[in-house]
Fold these 4 entries.
Entry 1:
Amino acid sequence: MPDAPGLELILAEINRDTPGAVIDTSFDREQAALIVDATQIRSTITWLRDTPGHEYTFLSSVHGVDYLPNEPRFAVHYELLNRERHERLRVKALLSDPAVETEAGSDVPPIGAPDESRPSGGTSEPATQLLPHIDSVVDLFPTADFQEREIYDFFGIVFDGHPDLRRILMPDDYVGWPQRRDFPVGGEPVIFTKDEVTNPGWWQ
Amino acid sequence: MATPLESGLRDEEVTVGELRERLADRLPGASIELAPEQEMMTVNMGPHHPATHGVLRLIVDLEGEVVKDLKPVVGYVHTGIEKSIETMTYWKAIPFVERMDYLAYFSNMESYCGAVEKLIGLEIPRRAQYLRVLHLELNRLHSHLVWLGTSALDLGAMGVYFYCFRDRDRVLDMFEMSTGQRMHTRYFQIGGVAEDIPAGFEKKIRELIVTLNTGIDQYEALLDRNEIFLHRTKGIGIVSRERLLELGVTGPLLRASGDAWDLRKESGYLAYPEIEFDVPVGTVGDGYDRYRVRLTEMRESLKIIEQCLDGMPEGPWLADDRKYVLPPRSELSTSMESLIHHFKLVTEGFRVAPGEVYNPVESPRGEIGCFVLADGSSKPARVHFREPSFVNLQALRDMTVGEYVADLIQTLAMLDPILGGIDR
Amino acid sequence: MEIERQKLRVHAPLDQPSSPEELRARQLRARDLLRGDLEGSDLDAYVEERVATTTLEKVLNSARANSIFPATFGLACCAIEMMSTVSPRYDIARFGAEAFRASPRQADLLILSGRVSIKMAPVIRRIYDQMLEPKWAISMGACSSSGGMFSNYAVVQGADKFMPVDVHVPGCPPRPEALIYAFNKLQEKIKGNPEQGWRSRYQAHGTEEWARGGAGSKPSEEAAEAYAKAREVLGA
């Protein structure tokens, strides 16, 4: 990985070309990370891929993270890899949850809850303007195709410019974004012996 | 007629347009006027299909016999493992992690345990490293044997299926001997391995190496120069190396197209830097090359296992740090602190300082990377697996568009997808 | 207690005749039968020794049990162990399940091997509906029997929730021998004598936990009192 001074150099160079793109660096447990402004993610990744001397040409993984009690809440992580020098660099794009920023008093249902306030019969997805948006990098790295769909499926982060953004692992008509921290794990309670009385006829 | 070994060619290809012209000559007056879009047929290879590769649904657009477009629909075995792990402590998450890519369960465990060990900064003892490498390579053998058996079955060679599963049962006997369970062994612990290998294990493994070398010779004798197999796999499903890299493909698929990228050599985790082995690389990148690469990888795995046994250091198989590592059970009856540590670790688990880590490992299918986000509590806040099958599946479209639908099954077999890994 | 021992009237197999005279007698009888000369009680005895009479239903059930066509239906990890049962070591073909049919219309038995996710459940139901009667289902492994270790939003907690299952096999994954044991249990069930387990052997029906104090059982009075007191204490 580029070490801490190397990271600072990268930050300086990127911010010289596109000011304000990289907000911070982090070098923790020998892994390097750049924290990037979500609106400039494409330029940052293009810079990292194309600049001679850096050339992170392989995108290992794109995944989403929900840092719930912390703000900003969501992040999309891009794990970049330079194969010649075998160096990995993580690029984190932080996104906040737009649903929280709507005015208090509006009866907007929290993201992830079944949408009962909308007229029934419509689509089951909540209104798109309440979801965080970020640019898609599919044309830069085609490998991000399925992976961005997975992030959309599980976190509700919309990737602008993705050719085919729809659910990939959950059923098409599923409501909610399962891997958000405030989405319940689900499942059924285990019926222990002492609880059998309160669940009459559980064996049927 | 080209001899089988030379033919990377299929029989004369006729496009639908040419066919129309030819027939129009022979049947003057007959109009075979079909607009191109009327000839497109969408076929659904549903989640339940005779090909033994799990519940993968493919929506294939066909023009005649030629595949024009392919859309995989996945999610039919989605288990919510990543979400479930957030409710489990770090130690209790290990059985969940195993059940994703259900043929390469040791690789899953290694990526997860390695990530958590990086998070807590724990070094595992050398004997544990060697034991992990041993089991990882046995798992690679097991995965490739199952792949070969099921792929050959898809192509019609039923005998190879039975031979491969016979040998696979021998490998599983070894797992049962050292870990107690055939599949999903929960053997790798955070800090080493759960138990040392028993007496007699080494002898049995050496016998197994001899048997399996003979076995691989037999498979090669059956399939290598088999005319049907060659006709079906040579020249099929070629994707250029650059395109594969763009699609993020790793593992034997990438190595078959000529790129010697193997994380065991590149990043040298566990005991791999001390072991000599080669990385087999193909030339063309067709189905035959993928088959050859995996078969040669099996032989290399046997070499690695032998070197592991020869060079196995003595010592503990679990790290000493009782704050994070469960004590071996023999200590529990003699030491009070061990008992207290065991109790604490099993009920509450250890806490990990906040941080995040991405740990990639070479599984039989490619790079499996585990991302763990720790928030200071005893349960991981987010675990994500970059599964090789999930990413490799994106290459299926490139491999099959323009080919005949009859080759689709074969290409899918050579791709080696494991739906448990794709769907998690 | 006086124990009376009686010699069993065993029809000795042909390769172990009890005495030369008996062997000679049998040979003569066989020759007479082939000539069509056996009559009366001789013929009755001959037929009784060699022909089994039973009901048509039992024959049909026996035929069904001994030639089950399972459907090739593998979902997840248990599918690998199911493939192992077909492999030479744990050969399931010795019990008659040689031909695994790909099409559900041709299959008798659906072995649900693996976790049933919510996306797959309607597909499985449709496949089960496409199978023709008589059909059975084995729920292999913990995940399809009860959701297994995955108690979350994505896994149906037991295939029982949407389709009838005949035999459940515990294990994660169950060993191939466990699957074959379940297969044998299914065969017994098809033949009409299902193994009830230990409760029938010890005449202990009614002691199941759900039956104690419930509508279907009659616990003794002391037991009912004690159970009611326990419920009070637990505050149920």
Entry 2:
Amino acid sequence: MSRMKVTKIIIYILLIGAGFSFLYPFYWMILASLTPESQLGNFNLLPLEISFENYLLMFSKIPIFRSLLNSTVVAASSTTGVLVFGSMIGYALAKRDFRGRNALFFIIIFTMTLPFQITLIPNYVLMVKFRWVDTFAALIIPSLNSAFAIIMFRQVFKGIPDDLIDAARVDGCGELRIIFQVLWPNIIPTIITVGIITFMNSWNEVLWPLIVIRDENLMTMPQLVTLFAVGGRSDAQLGVKLASAVLLALPIIIAYSIFQKHFIRSMASSGLKG
Amino acid sequence: MKRISQYGIYLFLLVILSACSGGKNDRDSILEYWSSNNIGEITFSQKIVEAWNLEHPGSTLKFQPIPEGQSSEEIILAAVVGKTTPDIYSNMWQGSVEFYAKANVLIPLDTLAGFDNFIRDRCDSLTIREITSSDGHIYQFPWKINPFMTIYNKKFLAELNLDSLPETYTEYLNAAEKFKKDLTGDGYIDQWFGNTSVRLVWYQRLFNFYTLYIAASDGLPLIKNNRASFNNEYAIGVFRFLQEIYKQDYFSKEDQTAGQDPFLAGKIASKFTGPWEIEYLERYKPEGFEFDYFPIPVPDDHQGPIYTYCDPKSIVIFNTCREPQLAFEFIKTMVDKKGDLLFLQSTKQLPRRKGLDTIKAYENFFNENQRLQAFVEQAKYIRGMDNCEVITEVFDIITQEYEACVLYDMKEPEKAIADAERAVNILLGNRK
Amino acid sequence: MRIQSKKSMISYFLVSPYLVHLILFVSFPVIFSVVLTFHKWNIISEMQYVGIDNYTRLFQDRLFWKSLVNTLTFLVVHIPLQIIIALALAYILDQKIFCKGFFRATFFLPVVISGVVVTMIWKQLYGVDTGLINKLLVSIGLGKVEWMTNKNIAMISIAIMATWKNVGLYVILFLVGLQSVPQRYYEAADVEGASRWQKFRYITLPAINPTIFMVTILSTIGGFNLFIEPYIMTGGGPLNSTLSAVLYIYKQAFEFYHMGYSASLGLIFAFIIMMVVVIQKYMIEKDE
């Protein structure tokens, strides 16, 4: 066998090994969640016994579907806000001249470098003062703006020729209309990128909900699963905990299988810009 | 497009506004009472509230179980912070009361009419002294207890052919040595004499260190006159006992929250736990599984009755209550002789009432529930918690030393306890 | 003049959402954070002025410095591991491979999954007696490893898990970097008779230096933000070896309600992060 072939074979073995190590843990988790508690230590590759008892038990213990709804509402609201507001400010920074424009731009860049650790506790105190603790307001309102989104939108708007905008103005369009009706159709990739990243980050966010939400009916899904995993209500039953983890992962896995390319492209371009 | 964006904005605002309406609900009742989420306690509370509402149509009471959350302590704190506390709450851990008392969010019950006589009738002087705050007032009404004991698998202990149930440290260690086995021959132990939490959260020490300390010292406090008072032979002895257990692999060091309950699965023969375990075991136990209780192990030279920690819960009235005297009248119906009996029947937990085994009206109940006899007997020798607003941090400090000494054998017990004492004194010294 | 001011009004209207956000959730918190560090507060009582007590306590706080050391341990293991594995996988994928897209998507999958799920899975994999990794090791003749129960290994275990979770993202970034190297460089090298290794070392590596730096910075920031993994895995143990700074801040604030002290921890920690990032950026700029 030629050296090329041997190398190729080694490469494929490595790749398949790597791929296996990335997929097996998820496979194991799903399998374990479907296995009755008593059998949990025993299976390796193939299921021994399929049972839904873990799921049924979990449904009776925690409001998992409620938290799914909560996460969806929060993530959707946050993403909408970020897209809308990010476009507005990105547009103003890119295409409009006003006093303090440059200063604002630098401030935005600066806030991106500000670690959240410094604002975490005071933001919580703010939530207390506003009486927003244990409300959706605490989860949604602070997340309606994103410096990252603003920068992305500003960048892409800067690349759009001014004539397009001038023409729209001549037609009598107001600024908001220009942004959403004229410009948006031209920047779909950016919208998708910002949308996916914002939604994903909001969905997976867990520290902030842990701090501001105590009422179980308002908890987001990762928060509920976390507390279920470390708390006592699962009665130390591993299968039940894993069932909740599977449900937490499921929406993202489904979205990912369909929109893979967009996920990858979005995060890659965000990393590059960062 | 404009219309869509208009609607979008309206919808958006609607979401925000509806979210902002978190706050105190309107009540047409005069009083609001929260219980825990325990099914038995909910049943009990419903009955008591119904009875009260019948008797007092003009001053009705609204009842709800505490909103679900990670822990009831967190929910209560959030309620205090958000000023959405109920008037009466019945599941307050005795150790938390001082924290809230110092923040002036609780009503001092001793200022209410009829309190003194009522409490003296129900509780002994030791209890009353225990629940009195550092400022001399009493902010809690002691409600219920769950005394800790050692549960054991009858079959396993019988197989060990011991002379008697292990009472002292030495006897316990000997039994553990006999029971420890490597069943599968892979060089690792699979069968332990017992297990207690190795988790490093502060309240897990209540199940091991604190209970053993109470038993060894006949109920000495951890904090006295705002200084650490646990640097003594008892605490050191407890650390040494537990350290030996882990050194000899008598308890597993792994967090046993994976897989099946180890006691039911026969992986361990005993456990330090309370009466709440009974119902859980009765529900899930396999065929032929039999269990019973004996007291917490004590040092070899221990004399006299064996004390234990009782995980006490109290009833409190928050200062948002506009009718504290009325609230107290309601509380009386929860904890008078009749109320306590109803409580026993609904929850199978013990009220913190003196002389449970001397009350004629309760005889029938205890005859029907033989299992609880051991706990009633134990209830004569119990200890709750010290009055210290930073008690959670005290336990966290002890946990740090516990981990280093007991779990990882990196320190001698004397040094670990001394280090804990020093850290606690620094902590308490900072309270101005 | 009126047209000018109308134009400005519109501009200010457009940026107003962010201005509100800036004032409420950025400026005010930063200022309040500083103020809070000079007070003692447990949320339900009154705030109490204590001067620089919190700072003196901070500098003597063994646990805080330990948490910084822990973070450093994490970074020292995580970053090189990340770069080497991501680069290796990207390099392999850059060749002519079947199902490239499938592998790429597979490596990327853990990136999008919540850290909560990943940690819960690995908590089981890392179990000393019941964990799959140890079972595998035992079955091939090696001994059990105390992944999460040994104070010297625990943080390394978390770093390995974090690498597994994030490597997919960096594979993609490296792929982009690799694919941006002009083919003719390699062709020229082939003419010169360069070996595979030489090509890699002298053409590829320099070209992807910027990507390596970016991966380093992103991983560093990720390391500083470590919270949910130790929270679920170990709660900070054993012996505080997995106590990350954010976890410690969280515990001080929400287990013991030391709001003032926790704010000072946050402030100092944020300061350290910013210094590190500035140093890293400076070193990159110098290189370029």
Entry 3:
Amino acid sequence: MSPSAPEGSLAWRRTPFRIPLLRIELRIPNWGEGIFKSLTFLFALSIPILIFVVGLEMALSSRLSLAQFGWRFLVTSTWDPVFGKFGALPFIYGTLVSSFLALLFALPLSLGTAIYLSEMAPHGIRGPLANLVELLAAIPSVIYGLWGILVLAPLMRQYVQPFLKATLGFLPFFQGPAYGVGMLTAGVILSVMIVPFIASVSREVLLAVPQSQREAALALGATRWEMIRTAVLPYGKGGIVGGIMLGLGRALGETMAVTMVIGNRPDIALSLFAPGYTMASVIANEFTEATGNLYLSALVEIGLVLFLLTIVVNALARLLVWRVTSGPKGGIRE
Amino acid sequence: MNSNLTYLKRKTTNWVMSRLSLLFALLTLLPLALIFFYLLSKGVSALNLDFLTHLPKPVGEPGGGMANAIVGTLILVGLACLLGLPIGILAGVYLAEFGHNRFGLLVRFTADVMNGIPSIVIGIFAYTIVVLPMRRFSALAGGVALGIMMIPVVTRTTEELLKLVPVSLREAALALGIPRWKTIVSVVLRTARMGIVTGALVAVGRIAGETAPLLFTAFGNRFWQSGLVQPIAALPLQIFAYAISPFDDWHSQAWAGALVLISLVFLIGLFTRLLLKSKYSLRGGQ
């Protein structure tokens, strides 16, 4: 055995074997330690590398469209595969508006649910109810889409949209024909999908708020709601914002359910009844039919924009959630 | 009198807010009830033995099933596990055992961020690295896409569950002079093996219903797949295709398919939950 490893290296057994008669010292190398550690290290390393490679690969695959359109790609709204003119604005608009609507509907629902589950509900039903919320999060998005297109869209067309038109029709958002499918329906189905997500993250954040916070507020004579408002919510604020951003990240990238109910028309319309299109759904619909390299490359570039957008949103969200759930510094924790 | 009024106001606010939060919780759960109602009322009637054992019929012909899609989904999940499990588990072992440093923090962070990358983007990635070089849609490409999506989930759950293994077990093994890596392999991993199975199941439950990354990788197929480098059918793809079709017959088939898919996902979820329960009992015994 070659004793060439540096003295004291952990990869070698400290105490050599002595064979008395021959006066030879044998150092048995303990290869296992190093091999095992570097093996797991390599696999762990593969995760950051993978993210980087995904971004790089998409940037490379969209270089044709990047070179041809540059920044104008993001701000022009012509989407004409026949004449090779591509601008992603309608899709960016659709993604942002549908996600904004989803957040608007989802915020009160998910925060109310989280507060109910962690503070208000009788102790016996908290667990089962939280499980039901998790169940909602486990439903595959294509099933939301199926339900959206066959049940929700007809309901919207027959009842909700005519009602909105009759009551709020003077606003530009609620005008035009009611197709059932469209931006509003996409917002509704998206909110149904992200509510369980935001609710369960927020619930975890609220559960991480130390009991002493609550007791202090109650001891000062606060009612239960005053305790939540003054002692619990401010403490978990960062984490809740993080949970909301995680939900936003999901809404931005959600594909199937939105594709099935948004109407898929690359127009920018002020009315929420009008059909729209999102970045994810244009990729889903047109990728396999894209003829010509420029067309494909434009679609990949939309994917790249979506990738960067969700990375930023998710990174911020994770940082916020981590800061709260991994134990806050200082304060009244101990 | 004035203080009495304030008191009344505070109590009323408290009452209103507690009812409001209950109302919102109920509203959140309403879609769950609605979706289940429709899945059961429309799916059960279209679900029969033919559905589970036959190929899809052409438009207009009644009957037929999604047997190929059900098998296809199982194959795709299997392929995804081949890619996602080894990477995820080993990365999880690193995080739990050696990851108490800045690099570990980076990996944890990127895994969480990767979890949030839209599945359609992963689909594009799989398309560019598998479909383009091979010049065909294939089960393999679908498996790669789903496998990549599994990695962050498996990594994080493996890490969490390895951390549940009591320190005393490790110390006992180390005290016997067993090298660290052998301790990890034969004591820590053995103790946590049900936990690792659980992590795998969580990930499978998440990817089994994924549609978007399969659209331009596995592509779908109306017949039995003829190998791993050919397009393959998948249950979510079939549901999607049938749901956006204009035919009532296909709509009811889509409901039945959705019922099968959701049963699959929930069964996995239930199984996971049971395993997790037994996991905690291990910890409680210490």
Entry 4:
Amino acid sequence: MGETRGELLQGTLPLLILRTLSTGPNHGFGIAKRIGQISKAVLKIEQGSLYPALHRMELDGLIEADWDTTENNRRAKYYRLTRKGQRALAHEKSRWEAVAGAIATVLREA
Amino acid sequence: MTWLRRCGRRLRGAFSRFDDRAVRQEVDLHLDLLTEEFRDQGFSEVEARSRAERTFGNRTRAVELTRAVTTLPWLESLLNDVIYGARQLRRSPAVTILAVASLAVGIGANTAVFSIVDALVLRSLPVPAPDRLAALSLGDQDATRVDGSRWSYAFWKAFVPHHTQFDGVMAWSPVRVSASRDSTVQPVDGVFVNGGFFAALRLPVGLGRPLEQTDDRDGAPSVVVISHGYWQRQFGGAADVIGRTILVHETPFAVVGVTRPGFIGLDIGQAADIILPLSTEALVRGAQSFLRPPFDGMNMWLRIGVRLRSDQSLESGSAILRGLQPQLREASLPAGFPQLRETHLREPIGLISAANGLSRVRQLYRRPLNALMLVVGVVLLLACVNVANLLLAQATAREQELGVAVGARRVATSSRPPAPRGISAAHLRCTSSRPTCGALGGAGAGRAVFDAERPSDAGALTRLARARRHVHAWSDHHARLRDGGCTESQHGCSWKCAEQCRVPHDSLAANSGPGRALGNTDCTVADSSHCGEPIRRDVRAFDGGTPRIRSRCRAAGYGAGERPSGTATGAL
């Protein structure tokens, strides 16, 4: 594979979901699409794996969901961040930045 | 509290097992939106859909994994297996009836015989240290050793002074008396016991007090202990039963105690509902009393037992009795029968164990009972083997139903044969009314259940290649079908079901790894379960009618190597 396409690192999907939802409620397809758009199609998530992650996060109380209608009048489940989710996002984000920074340093220096 | 809420949700999820509609709805919407997007990019409807499916990945797997988050998957799969098992049983009632009947006979016979053996042979008396109880027995012959001998009252009177040699002595004699309460007279199984009976047995009472030495004296107030069963039956378990009176042969007896449940006397098979002091025998039998001359030496009616001391064995106890024998015999010789004197003095008195109570029946039938127990045990074993055989035969008959279940988990494919519900299910159903000899015969699609999780397995690769050829062929065929308008109304088949089983042609061609190919397929047991039942017959028809269908297929212009689908039979 010549392209720079990344399989997602283990455990990063929830972080991406949290970040995506921090801009406002969205349904599964919307989340997948946004992640794809923003990362300029570098991050390829297998979209089917989104739903187990969403439901697990809902169970953990990081996000909440309500059924609503889309602009095309289809019924969709909209997820949004809870307070706990916001805290988790901040925490995960700083942790990720620390780790990513450390790895970048190692790659540069070593 | 979080984990508590989690458990609650999971349990609730597990019990709403059929309710995965919400998840499906989410996933369906996702796929639809994705399709729309591809369509907007200029792809044809079909192409857009297949691209959407590839982008999304294994749809059923996604639904299953999502549901696994909020449910207990193992509980659900257990439930599924139970239901599946029940369906299998219902499907072949003859086998089921046979299996249940043979198990029922085996288990029933065992239970019946064992309960007899238990009551007669195994169960000990419900008293402390029952193995120290022994009964006096005369002679060495089996006939007299079986259930202890009977003795006269005179002998008992001579024996009582030696009670200090043992840990306690007792005499008892079953008797049938007519007892009345509230003017209704009933025959009741009773037993006369000596005053030290309860003490020697260490038999506790559930209510009131046991009989004591002072009750077993001439002129003592007439008292009685009743059994727990009699208390329940006759007094309705009344708490104030102590002090009430029972008329036994017109003589009023005051109830002083109730035995604990479980004690039914020392003689197995003979209940002891009313326990009377020995001295009251005179009141019951009147002038013919066995307690007074001349009957006291002649009538052998008492059983005599001892409780051995902890340092005594049956042998040492017997030795003590042998030592006492001459004086006991001398004192108890019946008057007027001098010819008995010699045998009486010669016959040795010994002890037999009374740990399980005394029973002539037991002694007589012990060996046959053991043999019977063995026989019914073998019967049960045979029944089990029988059932195992039946199931084996059934499994062999079902072998043909094994087929490809693309994308299903490994466990799901190995725990039940999925074919009629897998690809072939949707496929066969959809071809049901078309005069087409489908290239992918349902059961013929491949007996290979390949292992999606181990793509490195060489055998799996071969099988996968074979299966893929079938899938390719089927995909073409499927397109033909669809172009020909295989719709729900036409075929009585859920189009959706067939759609789920669709394997995009180019996805198989484009991706090389078997895992990838599998990831893009989308048919599992669960997915097409609603296409299930009627298919089985179709598969059978296919297997049974092959030569005829083949010839018709050839006549219809289908070449060799193409296998007709079974359900085409009617249409061809």
